Amino acid sequence: MFDLPWNTEEGSSNTKWRPKENILLHSKKSYMKPKQIGNTVTSPNQPEMKLTLLSLKNWTITAVSLRAGPGKNLIRFNKAKDGKVTTEEGLHAELLREAGKSRGNCRSKIIDKRHLEAAKSLREDPDITIRRADKAAHYVLIPTEDYLNKMDTLLMDVTKFERITRNPIEEIKTKVNRIVDTINAKAEGLKLPKLVGNYGLGYCYGNVKTHKAGSSLRPIISQIPTPTYVIAKKLNELLTPFVPSRFSLSSAADFLDLLSNSDTNGVIASLDAENLFTHVPILRTINYILEEVYPENGVPKLDLLKAALKALLEICTMEAPFVCPRGNMYRQIDGVAMGSPLGVLFANFFMGMVEKCTFNCFKKPSIYARYIDDTFVKVDCKSELPPLKGILQDISGLNFTIEFSQENKLPFLDILIQQSPLYFKTSVYTKPTNPGLCLNGMSECPQRYKDSTIRAFIRSALTHSSSWSATHLEIERATQVLVNNGYPNKEINKIIKHEIDKWYLQQNAPNKEGE
Question: Which H helix or E strand runs over 379?
């Protein structure tokens, strides 16, 4: 059924409109009271979005067309014989796309017509593809044929991807709703949302790894348009509390706390699980999840049928379809995608169970702390690391690389760690390939965004540096980066002073026990 965003109430000469609770045509702002202009209803929030009422019968819409500007029909709805309104395929995606568009009339003081024409010409050039750089705040121009060939190479792995010729969206939607109905009928407190409306294929793209030789691509599969996305988000919310977290870090702050309470004796190194996401074994990880949620001799930790949870996890990870840049349809049959709500959950669950098995039969290092696929370790001697790497590889089936400290220094996350006789010295780590770009100080955006950019640099200097000399050096570096990106010195210095004063007060504030 199709619901208009407003209900009608029969009045005298004027028609009264009131917002409905379930709004299908929506914008990022709440609807205000619309105006009626002849046969056309417009919302003040989106003056270009018009619902043209073609006919009324007992104050019920029998047909309506959605317009996004003069003469452009996006979707037409026709009332079927049974009284229901049917929609064309792709409605949901079109509505989201139109609702998210900015339709303001403000003119830029920086970008003029020639800039816009140059950008449009670049975007429309079929020989050039513009992609965001991986882990960097800049964009890369890559020859389209090179980009497509690299994506084809990634998708040629038949152990991970399967090409399909028929769109399975409706079948998936029906299958998921059948399982959801079963769960909701038997579970007392837990209710999963049913899939309502139109859905589409996910889409695959690659971000260029400019920090690595060869500029390979990091594949990302956005599953937002797919029918499994909402269910996957709900499953991620339900299962996250059960992820084995004994050896995992949640943030850089956790890691800094760990270092501050550890001695520096021994050898430090980092272990990296190569291409973790695409090599997570799906069925094995699902079994790990089921073992954790449904212990053999215990009470289930979720009010959810085991078979139903297993079926939903398999659908969300192994059946979600997507389209590649060449327009072909695929589905990922093993490994998890970056872009899936279950990606990080599966990666952490799998690695957590691998570590649990590893340290049941192998001596744990004095420090072992993992953030998704990067692990910091401290061992008594260098010879302990190859056996640890070997057993991790044997149990997981993954490939690990070891990076040893150089001159007692080792980068981990965005922190540079230095071993000293008494404690670990830390400072902010910046990759050699970092181009020094950030939100431009002259950009036309709210001032609070620019202030937040400055604060982020200063807070990193304060939290990551173990000495005031390291803090001073990082603030000097950050100031130069900000100046290079168009920020005035006056604004930078004002925020630096405010953040340092705030930091000093927090560090010297009396705790409740001492008051």
Answer: strand 374-379
Measured distance CA(514)–CA(71) in Å, rounded: 72
Rounded Cα gap, residues 354 and 140, in angstroms = 37
Whole-number Å distance between alpha carbons of 488 and 135: 26
Distance, in Å, from the CA atom of 231 to the CA atom of 198, rounded to the nearest integer, reads: 15
CA–CA dist 478, 458 (Å, integer): 8
Pairing of strands 267-273, 400-404: antiparallel
Query: What is the pLDDT at residue 357?
Result: 94
Provide the pLDDT for residue 44: 43
State both tokens at 182. 């079963």
pLDDT at site 450: 95
Question: Rounded distance, CA 435 to CA 424, Å?
Answer: 28
Q: CA triplet 254, 260, 265: central angle to 5 degrees?
A: 120
Q: Any idea which residue has 């560090």 for tokens?
A: 507
For residue 141, give the H/E element and its range: strand 139-143
Instruction: Write the pLDDT tens digit of every residue in 435-482.
Output: 888 999 998 889 999 999 999 999 999 999 999 999 999 999 999 999
